[in-house]
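Example for tutorial group B:
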């Protein structure tokens, strides 16, 4: 009996230690998730890449985010999009995020941003938005733009954070061409929609943190705006026959600085044509 107890104590100790190591790794070591999107709006030999960052919440990977910035430079995406919550609602000093923005735009001049709930809940939001603009990051809340990538025309639309009711889908859609590949940036997935206006092919969101804490075989325990065991937690979802929603589980944390079975990540999206 004493030997059984000893083995049980050893097993439990190793289990707890493994859980601690796994949690630390998931929280502090990021990965690059890959996502491939095919479209008939491009010819078969046409493609481009979009790197999505979301929910950084002032998290640092290496001194001054050197590890994160090095990987971003290495990936060399055509366009970088940030789907909100670069800062936390409690963020007091903005210097960290401005330094990050400056280094990011030095790597890639095509960086676009939509606001998240934490930006709107921060008293320094106006200084934050202006500071990003000064560093070369373009805020596209409730508007859109056309991007030329070699011989490809790509449309990018954005809405202000839906969870804090700063979104205006009509403004975001104004003037879009239905024939061009079009992504919509929306920090929080708009749970009231399973059908977007015709130009939209893919919606890119964050906000959920993938549940932040997940359990094997069960998935996310809870997500903001969805409660327990959320349907739209992370990954790709078919909204209808022509539109998809992708939710990146993000890089940072909120409330508690812990991720479990849900590694910090950013997503490299490759868009490939299948012929018109």
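The residue assignment follows.
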């Amino acid at each position: 009996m004493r030997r059984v107890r000893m083995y049980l104590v050893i097993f439990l100790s190793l289990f707890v230690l493994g859980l601690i190591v796994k949690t630390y790794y998931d929280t502090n070591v990021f990965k690059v998730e890959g996502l491939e999107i095919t479209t008939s709006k491009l010819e078969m030999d046409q493609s481009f890449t979009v790197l999505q960052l979301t929910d950084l919440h002032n998290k640092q990977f290496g001194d001054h985010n050197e590890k994160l910035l090095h990987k971003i430079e290495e990936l060399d995406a055509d366009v970088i999009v940030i789907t909100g919550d670069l800062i936390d609602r409690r963020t007091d000093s903005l210097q960290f995020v401005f330094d990050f923005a400056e280094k990011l735009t030095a790597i890639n001049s095509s960086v676009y941003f939509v606001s998240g709930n934490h930006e709107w809940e921060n008293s320094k939001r106006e200084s934050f938005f202006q500071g990003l603009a000064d560093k070369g990051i373009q805020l596209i809340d409730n508007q859109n733009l056309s991007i030329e990538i070699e011989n490809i025309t790509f449309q990018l639309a954005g809405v202000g954070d839906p969870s804090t009711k700063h979104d205006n889908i009509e403004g975001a859609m104004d003037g879009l061409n239905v024939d061009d590949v079009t992504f919509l940036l929306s920090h929080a997935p708009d749970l009231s929609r399973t059908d977007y206006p015709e130009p939209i092919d893919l919606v890119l969101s964050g906000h959920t943190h993938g549940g932040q804490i997940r359990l094997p075989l069960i998935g996310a325990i809870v997500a903001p705006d969805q409660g327990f065991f959320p349907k739209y937690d992370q990954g790709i979802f078919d909204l209808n026959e022509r539109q998809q929603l992708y939710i990146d589980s993000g890089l940072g944390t909120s409330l508690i600085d812990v991720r479990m079975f849900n590694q910090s990540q950013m997503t490299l999206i490759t868009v490939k044509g299948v012929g018109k």
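The chain has a mean pLDDT of 94. Compare this with the pattern of hydrophobic and polar residues in the output above.
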